[in-house]
Amino acid sequence: MSAFMQTFALIELSITCAVLCIWILQKFSANSFPFVVKVLLVLLIGNLLFWPLGMDLPLVAYVRGVTGDLSIVLTLLLWSSLLPANKPAPIAFKLAVATIALCFYPFALGVGMIDPYAWGYGSTIFLISVLLFAVICGLANWVKGVWIIAIAIIAWSVHWHESANLWDYLLDPFLAIWALIALINVLHRKRRDKARAGYLFRPG
């Protein structure tokens, strides 16, 4: 069973890496790739990453050695970015992730007397808090967020990854960095637009 889970984790990460490669390619392309082309590229790149290609381990195994298992939330956000009707995550969600990460990681690393990471080992209050967060996503009309959090909880309950801690299914450093960069970009864009508006409407 352990070997099966290891193989499945490598397949999952190889797909995620392939999706990330496509996302990067899209940034340098003037036109959006058709959905069928994206799927074919995922299969091609994912296969290249999954097989050893002359090395002792598959390429993705070396990636996993550096990154570990990504959270289910980040994985599903990346995978869903390939969908034709995909909408970006709301700024409120990015703000929530960034705020939680800034509070969580210092305490989890030993700053202070509180250890929020321990809450992930079956704390009922923490689980209820996560469910309430999912409800808030639904009330904010972000249905995809509800599904992502629900799947993350299900994955945790069946021990989809090696970790038995719910935090590892909800949050990881890469998700936190993505949220922080997204917020910085929003603030920079608003500041730039404000400066541009002030330049256009200044007297004279």
Write a concise keyword list for the protein shown above:
204 residues; mainly alpha; 9 helices
Word description of this protein:
The chain has helices at 2-27, 35-50, 59-67, 72-80, 91-108, 124-139, 143-157, 167-170, 173-200. It has 204 residues and is mainly α.
Q: How are the elements arranged and paired?
A:
Elements: H1 2-27, H2 35-50, H3 59-67, H4 72-80, H5 91-108, H6 124-139, H7 143-157, H8 167-170, H9 173-200
Helix pairs in contact: 1-2, 1-3, 4-7, 5-9, 6-7
| First-last Cα distance | 74 Å
Q: Residue-averaged pLDDT, rounded? A: 89
Helix content: 55-70%
Q: What is the string of SSEs from the N terminus onward?
A: HHHHHHHHH
Please summarize the sheet with the most strands: none
- Beta content comes to under 5%
Structural class: mainly alpha
Shape: globular
Please compute the radius of gyration using only Cα atoms.
20 Å
Low-confidence stretches: none
Short description:
By secondary structure, the chain is mostly helical.
